[in-house]
Amino acid sequence: MVEASAFPDQFDKEKRGPQSEDFAWYPDWSGETCVIVASGPSARDVPLEIAAGRGCRCIAINESWKLAPWADMLYACDHVWYYKRRGQVAGFAGIKVSQDRVCADLMPDWDIKRVYSVRGVEQIMTGQPGYIGWGGNSGFQAVNLAVHFNPAKIILVGFDMTLDHGCHWHGRHAHGLSNPKPPYVNRWRRVTDNAYFAIQREGIAGFNTSMKSKLVAWPKMSLEDALDA
Q1: Could you give the CA distance from residue 144 to residue 126 in angstroms, rounded to a whole number?
Q2: What's the mean pLDDT in 47-64?
Q3: Spatial CA neighbour of 35 closest among 113, 149, 161, 118
Q4: What is the model's pTM?
Q5: Residue 100 and residue 90: Cα distance in Å, rounded?
Q6: Could you state, in order of their start, the residue ranges of all structural domains in the chain?
Q7: For residue 86, how many other CB atoms are within 10 A of its CB?
Q8: For position 10, what pLDDT does the model report?
């Protein structure tokens, strides 16, 4: 676990660092269940309508908002994804979020909220709204963001952390969007497993619905069982 105060000079190059009022949009999910939908191939087989029917909170990552159009939040690490999908996600009713400064500086009309991901930090960050660890991927960052909203439970969907069964549930990205490579996936697996112990220390339960997942720390079970756990 890393306190944000450990990085006071992180944003010197940006004339204005994050202020508490910048995060008035933060929801309070105290005591609730947050389902985070990533893009691993297993995501397409999870009955997300059950989570919707139970009133779960949801963060969808990149293209996975199509699996959960009812999600409370859409998270994408890179502004390029938002730019290329701008026509599709314009009508998304939830909160759109990114750690990419371009979203805030060059796309203000798109109403994409910004958080500050500290490069090089591969641990969950707490203690100050708006600061999250880097971890090298949107899934880890979305987990860190969810921790800030204080849910009782985080359930992972599509966090396969392997390329053995394909790249994404929607196939490979095209047109300038990046796709995972084995060295990256190995790193993502390590930091996401470590995140499980971090959320436990925050009093948050965690579960993984992907039976194909290479994560070893997160208990694996079906979505239905995770909701009941």
Answers
A1: 8
A2: 96
A3: 149
A4: 0.88
A5: 18
A6: 27-228
A7: 12
A8: 47
